Amino acid sequence: MKTLTTGVLALAAASMLALTACGSKESTAKSEAEALASSAAAAHADHANHPADGGSVPAGIAEASDPTYPVGTEVVLAADHMSGMDEATATIVGAYQTYTYSVNYTPTDGSDPVTDHKWVVQEELADAGSERLADGTPVTIEAEHMTGMKGAEGTVESSTDETVYVVDFTAGGMTVKNHKWVTESEIEGAK
Q1: Ranges of each domain in the chain
Q2: Least packed by Cβ within 10 Å: which of 3, 12, 39, 109?
């Protein structure tokens, strides 16, 4: 009887150990996957692959006729598109009137899907026409703000018809020229 009890206890202990190890591997794998997703999201939120010069605006975009913040105005940013951007001092280099979109997309370089990327304008979406696109509309992005963006398929998350600006600013030791885009509600007058 003592041998049977010892055998049952040994079997139970081995089973618990195996289940614990299995659970531990699953937890570790889940934690690693969450960490990778988090770091990919953080890299996007930090615009780690954002060029130092955003380049020119798309052809056909209309300049705003009477922007709140004219070209040359010094402003304070109230946007967190990149690390250090919120509360950074910036200079307005362009003001435009168009529809501006937050988009979800899958990058063409195989990196993780991006959610709520702010911002792309109507003129940076393939075959977008001239009417405002509804939330959820499928789009093909022609902008090259970030690696893997040009040609990416996605959907409209949200949109605005606020004046949209191009700005120069310095954040986290990086000087950014022609940053596209900052909406009017993401800007405050200089303090």
Answers
A1: 1-45, 62-189
A2: 3
